[in-house]
Specification:
8 helices, Tetrahydropterin Synthase, Chain A, alpha+beta, 5 strands, three-stranded antiparallel β-sheet, 3 domains, two-stranded antiparallel ribbon, globular
Length: 197
């Protein structure tokens, strides 16, 4: 027996996810009216559609800036998307502002794991292995990988817990924006300035 999907349910799901009306209705129908399950369905579809868009060229976008109160910390970031139409939307601008706040608050050094120089990764791997010395070889490997993951989440913007919702990573927030806006979005580069640093 299927549950009747009301306009209020669709509206509630749309507010929570930012997905289109028809996508929300389909997800609610698939989930038999369960809002949480429908949200999960939309997130899975969003991640899948974001993965399909990853190869598309993102040559438009914005350069956003943020100066923290008191002028002691400033951030410049370049975030790219596929069209200037999306770059001008409030949703995209809000994403760029949130990314600036994230960088100001957490001071990452790199955009992603892939942008960390190999010699730095090798150095951290050696340090982690030395700290795990004396353990069984299989345990050492797991310890090293765990320490590297923790290291990457401290220095890589996309790996960090999102300051506005620590249950998500920055990468998940960007992926959700890709699903909502329907375009590939890439954080190209950023610079963080701090007085006296």
């Amino acid at each position: 027996m299927s549950t009747e999907i009301s306009a209020k349910m669709v509206s509630t799901l749309r507010e929570k996810t930012g997905a289109g009306l028809m996508d929300c209705k389909k997800a609610l129908t698939e989930a038999n009216g369960d809002l949480e399950q429908a949200e999960t369905i939309l997130r899975k579809k969003g991640v899948a559609s974001a993965a399909k868009k990853a190869g598309r060229a993102a040559n438009e976008g914005l350069i956003e800036s943020y100066i923290h109160l008191g002028g002691r910390v400033g951030v410049l970031i370049e975030v790219n998307c596929e069209t200037d139409f999306v770059a001008k939307t409030e949703d995209f601008k809000a994403l760029c502002r949130d990314l600036c706040l994230q960088i100001a608050a957490t001071s990452p050094s790199y955009v992603s794991r892939e942008s960390v120089p190999e010699e730095e990764v090798a150095r951290e791997r050696d340090i982690a292995a030395a700290q795990a010395e004396g353990k069984p070889p299989a345990a050492i490997q797991k310890i090293v990988e765990g320490k590297l993951d923790k290291y990457f989440s401290s220095i890589c913007l996309m790996e960090q817990p999102f300051v506005k919702n620590p249950e998500k990573t920055v990468k998940e927030v960007v992926t959700e924006a890709i699903a909502r806006l329907g375009e590939n979005i890439q954080v190209k580069r950023f610079t963080r300035y701090q007085l006296g640093a």
